[in-house]
Every structure is written in C-alpha cells, then in structure tokens.
Amino acid sequence: MKKSTATVIFTSLMMATSGAVIADGAATYQKACVACHMTGAAGAPKLEDKAAWAPRIAQGKDVLYNSVLNGKGAMPPKAGQAQLSDDEIKAAVDYIVSQAK
Ligand code: HEC
Fold first, then answer.
1. pLDDT at 45 over 70
2. Which of 44, 52, 61, 81 suits 10 as a labelling partner, its CA being 20 to 30 A distant?
C-alpha cells in the first residue's frame, strides 16, 4: 500500500517535470530566440519555414544543440543569453524542432 502510493507520487512528479521541460522550451524560445527566428532577422531560419529547417534538422539534434551553444554564423553562443543553462537552450531547440517539422 505504502509502496504504491509512493509510486503514484513519483510518477506524477515525473510527469509534472517533463511537462515543465516542454513548457520551458517554448518559454525560452519566446524570450531568447523569437527576435531572430520569428522575423528571419540576420538570416535566421523562420520558425514556420519548414523547408529551411528540414536540412538543418537532418543534421541531427546534437549538431543543432552545438550550433546554439557555441554559436553559428550570425547567431551568438547561447543566442547571446549566457545566463541560460545548456538544458534550457536544448529545450528551446527541441521546441523549434517540434514546431518546424
Ligand atoms: C541574433 C539572432 C538570433 C537569435 C537571438 C537566435 N538565433 Fe538561432 N540562428 C540565427 C541565425 C542567423 C541562424 C543561421 C546560422 C547559419 O546557418 O549561419 C540560426 C540558426 C539556428 C539553428 C540551426 C543551426 C544549424 O546547425 O543549422 C538553430 C537550431 C537555432 N538557430 C536555434 C536557436 C535557439 C534555440 C535560439 C534561442 C535560445 C536562437 N536560435 C536564437 C540567429 C539567431
């Protein structure tokens, strides 16, 4: 009995956590990425431009993570937001990939 209650609590905690990660990706995108990726500023691929994203997504997520963490072309390292953790950056990349596919 005790054990199953703990399992339920653990499971709902895990679900709450993974839900938060998805929300964080969207929130981080809105804060840190939207300025360029919404408008195409500085030559950034627009979020809804699936044709522009397809070859980038095909490189694999690790390449995309590295591009944002270390910078690529006109995009500065961590999109210029050094206070963001690597996980926040990765969640924002995951969000972009989920929207652009
Ligand atoms: C200052 C403008 C700017 C901001 C802010 C910005 N980006 Fe970018 N991003 C770019 C540009 C420009 C490119 C294209 C770089 C190239 O291919 O030369 C790009 C490319 C990318 C790519 C593709 C990388 C690849 O390897 O093809 C990803 C993924 C990406 N951005 C994610 C993000 C995320 C996530 C954020 C927010 C945390 C963000 N960007 C914020 C300008 C920006």
1. yes
2. 61
Mutate to test the pocket of ligand 1, among 24, 29, 33, 90 (most ligand atoms within 8 A of CB): 33
Residue 91 Cβ contacting ligand 1 at under 6 Å: no
* Residue owning tokens 């929207």: 99
User: What per-residue confidence (pLDDT) applies to 8?
Assistant: 61
